[in-house]
Write a structure and sequence with these properties.
By secondary structure, the chain is an alpha/beta fold. It has six helices and five strands; from the N terminus they run βαβαβααβαβα. A five-stranded parallel β-sheet has the order 2-1-3-4-5, with helices on both faces. Helix 1 links the parallel strand 1 and strand 2. Helix 1 packs across helix 6. The longest helix is centred in the last third of the chain and has 14 residues. The radius of gyration is 16 Å and the shape is globular. The protein starts with a strand and ends in a 23-residue tail after the last helix.
Length: 199
């Protein structure tokens, strides 16, 4: 299958550290690899309304929800690019993930089966000396992948607070060079209580 990357940018700041690190990693993809970048600040999603137990969601015909839905199901590789905000993903990113709940109930879509086997990745910048503070963000993405039966490529971590700081993180830049090029396909995500868990 031809790889199609969707980068979902969830920063409240244009061209922030997370986006800069993601672009460095994307530069290493083979020439001709399809890439689509969608900034959630430029394409804001409405607050998610949970109607799961009331009625099925109707597939949105237009607007930002339709744009993100169509781009998401078209991607073989979905990259969540979010800074670490209060130890998890940004509000914009969380809202995008919340909309997945509606897409699970959209007639004719079969979102869970569609996403199964595809790969979820993360890229984040954080302002701390200890990478462990990003564990809640990693857990959010890993468990979301596990629920949908997706593969999980991991999270590329970089250190930075002020704009451009991450480009001084030489270890992160070195990891970016091979982040999307593992020797084998990313493992299927499994919840910690499942046999063969990747965490």
């Amino acid at each position: 299958m031809t790889r199609r990357f969707l980068f979902v940018l969830g920063s409240a700041r244009r061209d922030g550290n997370s986006a800069s690190l993601a672009r460095r990693a994307a530069e290493q993809l083979p020439a001709g690899t399809e890439q689509r970048w969608i900034d959630l600040t430029e394409h804001p999603l409405p607050e998610f309304e949970d109607h799961r137990h009331d009625s099925d969601h109707v597939r949105p015909p237009e607007g930002n929800v339709a744009l993100l839905l169509d781009a998401t199901v078209a991607a073989t590789d979905l990259v969540i690019v979010s800074p670490l905000y209060w130890y998890s993903v940004s509000a914009q990113t969380k809202r995008y993930l919340d909309h997945w709940s509606g897409w699970l109930r959209t007639p004719g879509l079969d979102f869970k089966a569609t996403m199964a086997g595809r790969t979820l990745w993360g890229v984040t910048a954080f302002a701390d000396d200890e990478p462990v503070v990003a564990d809640p963000l990693v857990g959010t993405l890993h468990h979301s992948a596990a629920y949908l039966g997706m593969r999980f490529g991991g999270v590329l971590l970089g250190n930075g607070s002020r704009p451009g700081d991450v480009l001084k993180d030489n270890e992160a830049l070195a990891r970016a060079k091979t982040f999307f090029a593992p020797d084998a396909p990313a493992p299927l995500a499994r919840f910690p209580y499942e046999a063969g868990s990747t965490r």
